[in-house]
Amino acid sequence: MIALALLSIDTPMAWQGPGFLAVGPWSFTFVIDRLSALFLALLGTVGIASALFSPRYLRHLDSRMNSSLYWAAYCLFVLSMMLVFVSGDGVTFLVFWELMALSSTVLVSSEHTLHRVQRATIIYLGATRTSTAFIAFGFIWLYSMFHSWRFSDWCFDRPESYGAALLLMIGFCIKAGIWPFHIWLPYAHPAAPTPVSALMSGVMIKTAVYGVVRILLLGNLNCAAIGYLAVTLGVVSAFWGVLFALVQNDLKRLLAYSSVENVGLIFTCIGIAILSRSVGVPEVAALGLAAGLFHCLSHGFFKTLLFFGAGSIDVAAHTIELGQLGGLVRQMPWTMSCFVLGAVGICALPPLNGFPGKWLLYQSLFRNVWLSSSLIDRGLCLAIICILAVVGGLALACFAKAVAVIFLGVPRSKQSGAASEGSSGMVCAQVFLAIGCVALGLTVPQILLLVKPVCDLAVHTNSHIESAFTVDLRVTAIALIVLVLALSKLVLSGSQVRISRTWDCGFGPLGPRTQVTSDSFAQPVARIFRPILRYKLEFELTGTDRRHFPEKIRVKPNMVSLLEQRVYLPLLSIVSKLAKSLVKLQAGSIHLYLIYLCVTLILLLQLGTLL
Amino acid sequence: MNYGAADTVVAWIVSLFSGFLLPILLIGTIRKVKARLQNRVGPPIFQALFDLVKLFRKKQTVSSTVSWIFKWNGAINLSVMLLLALSVPWLCYKPVSLGADLFFVLYLLALSRFSTVLAAMDAGSAFGAFGASREVTISTLVEPALVLALASIGILTQSSDLDAIFSFSNAALSNTSGIWLLVGTAVILAGLVELSRMPVDDPTTHLELTMVHEAMILECSGPNLAMLECSQLLRMAILFGLSAQCFLHSIPCVWTMTIVSQGIIHVILMFVIASCVATFESVAVKLQWRKVPEFIAYCLTMSLIAGLIAVGGSLVK
């Protein structure tokens, strides 16, 4: 664990060392520049926090998993992510990309005796395989075009390379969990141990963003169509993710869907950057890229923080079902405060770190409305502003629900009533990240100065990105704190307080069951968006005079995942049918196999003569 | 806007005075007009002020299950609103320029909503939680309308800073009454929803089950409630003020007037809006909860038209 912490501390030191670091004649090339340094800093911070959080959390799972295997895979995972961020050529990138995928699969399957974990592992493995296949194919195509594996030699400004760029884009979308490839996220995150979900959501899905920026954007991709694709998929995932997050009852699933939303926002930013650079509006491109990179950092911080909150609750109350929790603010004040800070961050409320990224994205879209020359682009940008406003509202609803149902009110179950604050390591990890969130929000100009070289490189001019963020969050934060303190001092300090019970209309004390549940809080929104969610509310009233005096009322919300039912299941059944028809080849007869061998040999010989 | 030292002092005094008085006068006007339309005498126009003073003096009754969120909610809300009142150009004259980016303003409003929603669910009361649930639903729907409306005039002025948008500096916009009227109407409709007024929510209802905003603050009392009421009044003044600014900009001859006469017309417009709202509330019925999205759709449509005009208009130039 100390080694891991050292490793994690070591990574941000890469700040000082932008330059080349070539190892071996051609094979492993490593490049560390500002872009990798940014992502390494993210990995370092999240890595330290995870290492702090892990020991106590693992004790909670001790009976169900092998902890030495976990640590080995964990170190491999962090190391491979680090090396992905510093890879300088395609082969190195793929090698560590694979290592990252496999070690994370091992981590996801930590509790492999559970059925749901097995299922999640298979789905995750499928998704990550497909992603690698696309990326590998794209890399080979690029190699055949440029005769080099180095990223710096690849250039996407000619139409021949657009095909490869599209393949890479799809591959990275699958890894990032962009709609419609997002289905692995809500399975893998709840199944994995919390520190792993935090790392996967906070850093691993960002490797895909890193790939897009490093290879496509800095490779001068000049294709507006791919920009449109990224923007469309990004916006759809943002909306889809947050809508599904709102109706979840499992905290980790909720966070997983919210990752879909945030990674969608990041892809929208990057897509805007690609799009507006290819149509010649570098100002907007720089804004979009800066928005994307900033949001990567801040999402890494607050999502990890929220996952740690979920983990602490899991350790304390042995459940993360929203229906079983409640009133934890009294038993877990630290976790609660950190979780609220994370929620404020993820809802993009000023003055925390979620807001600057969202603001930069809004600005890039807003400026594109008058800077872009095509009417379609302008309309599109205005429409996206509109959709982002809805997404913002839904995110607020989603996290207000999560905070309120988990921490406020009275406990809904015995376990939740008996919960207590976790170990100091777990609390420290959360406080550390919460401070990080606040610091990131207050140092936006400095961060933008760090991002500036990347933006300059992407738009080939001085982007002036450091002065783009015109809102002064520091003044806002100070003004708010001073005002709140002054008001409460002036108004509340003198007043007397009488403690009473919650208003119950005079019918007697309220119990935990009279509180609103997670389902009922989300119902009005779910009703409005029911065509997308396939949301149905089933009522059942029983008793003699059912209408006025029902004896039993049962209400159950029912949702079907459209994408899984209509797209992926049929696809899977086609694949398995094809596989069954292939089985006929394997008939078990040795004669048949000999014929196969013979035919293959002849074909190979034929091929040899042809080449 | 450049002021000399004496002007700055005058501007501070005028804006502090109007910032304090206007919200109370506006709600007083609405109540008075409503009462007159119902053939009642109605409360005195300063009744809101008397109520606030009374509330500030009262003892607080607090539920035993609440946490710090509930206790700080009133202060947080009022602070956010004071900050907004200082930065948003809801009056024609403003002594300080803190910068009022429109996206920032909307997210600050969201911050106060987040705090109120959490505080509403803090006591574990189902009334508060239902109010909170409805509030987030409504705000999800009305947010795009408000963003789009303000953004569409932002596009024409090529700035997202509300100060720049409402500064009378861009003479090319002086003859575009249509878009200003559309945006003004959209803002006032969105304002009715945001402020939990009729026809979405009835601020005078007595039935907890139908309330939205009132249900959320059901558990609050004494000074805490007073601060929430204050922030609600300020929010109303800010939204009405923004809408009145739009209507003011739609009158071409106002553009060449002095700032004092602009300010006077603006305040008169705010009272006209308040009276119109009161009249509308007297003749309209509260909508069934399921019909609320349809009402918001009108607002959104207006913003959409404004947005399309802005996109098209900026292309022509």
Whole-number total of structural domains of chain A: 3
Low-confidence parts of chain A, pLDDT < 50 over ≥5 residues? Answer: 1-25
Distance between the termini of chain B: 26 Å
Coarse shape of chain A: globular
Output mean pLDDT of chain B: 87
> What fraction, in percent, of the residue positions of chain B are helical?
55-70%
What oligomeric state is this? heterodimer
Strand content of chain B: under 5%
Structure classification of chain B: mainly alpha
**Sheet with the most strands, sense and barrel status of chain A:** 2 strands, antiparallel
What's the helix-strand series of chain B? HHEHHHHHHHHH
N-to-C CA distance of chain A: 54 Å
Query: If helices are DSSP runs of H or I spanning 4 or more residues, what is the number of helices of chain B?
Result: 11
Biggest interface in this structure? A-B, 78 and 82 residues
Treating each run of at least 4 consecutive H or I residues as one helix, how many helices of chain A? 23
Order of helices and strands of chain A: HEEHHHHHHHHHHHHHHHHHHEHHEEHH
Radius of gyration of chain B: 19 Å
Mean pLDDT of chain A: 85
Number of domains of chain B: 1
Q: Please state the overall shape of chain B, judged from the principal axes of the Cα atoms.
A: globular
What is this entry, summarized?
The complex is a heterodimer of chains A (611) and B (317). Chain A is mainly alpha-helical and 611 residues long.
Task: Please give a structural write-up.
Helix content of chain A is 70%, strand content 5%. Chain A has 611 residues and is mostly helical. Chain A has 3 domains: 2-485, no CATH class; 533-560, no CATH class; 562-610. In chain A, strand 1 (19-22) and strand 2 (29-32) form a beta hairpin. In chain A, helix 2 runs antiparallel to helix 3. The radius of gyration of chain A is 26 Å and the shape is globular. The N and C termini of chain A lie far apart (54 Å). Chain B has one domain (5-316). At the A-B interface, helix 13, helix 14, helix 15, helix 19 and strand 3 of A face strand 1, helix 3, helix 4, helix 5 and helix 9 of B. Strand 3 of chain A pairs parallel with strand 1 of chain B.
